[in-house]
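Reopening this one. Same input as before:
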Amino acid sequence: MTGLKGKTIFITGASRGIGKAIGLMAAGEGANVVIASKTTEPHPRLPGTIFTAAEEMEEAGGKALPCAVDVRFEEQVTEAARQAADQFGGIDILVNNASAISLSGTRETEMKRYDLMNQVNVRGTFLCSKVCMPYLEKSSNPHILNISPPLNLEPRWFAPHLAYTMAKFGMSLCVLGMSAEFSAQGIAVNALWPRTTIATAAVRNLLGGDEVVRRSRKPAIMADAAREIFTRPSREATGNFYIDDEVLAEAGITDLSDYSVEPGSDLMPDFFI
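Same output, byte for byte:
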């Protein structure tokens, strides 16, 4: 398949982290990027807004549409998809990246936190996919990519943080179901997950600070893996639970040292691997 020039990519949670990296990669190839995120004002611990991200993506060579979207609200998602189609003529790729995390045990998990993770991770993914389907059906190579893990049912991934695991696996269940449901329409639905922790603000703030970041890879590895998936024929590449380094290896990229925050460091494996 050809590259991403002229394609329209709708990315949730694209104001920072992995979502932003995917947007910058696509913009660098001349894509139109819809930044569907709720951050309109700077956060003291999480830098970046939909507007600063849009500026960076346009500087990278693409077109950007910042949309204030909380994926929990259907009317906001619907309006953002409509604006994307009006401005760019359609939607070719949806990236369900927005996610909430709380690594707490059952007794320690407040129900409002449980509800948030399910509303953002599972319901948000289902909603964005449902809303974007009519636009994706009209694309020549439509893809949905969920940033979610392979369905690893080992109890060790459930016991420490059951609520979070259920919410992330809900995103992966969408891949399992939708890839089969929409195969006749030629809409690819896949998951992508990193082998290692990724150097994002969330990792720094929630998973161990600068030490974990030092042992992580840069978000660019997920962006480059996503590109490889987006450019595959949608009727052939669907229903997969991809791992970033495996995707790159299939493309002939095996030297991943440039992706390390600190080359030569002992990389930290991500959850569910």
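So the earlier flakiness isn't reproducible anymore. For the record, The first helix runs from residue 17 to 28.
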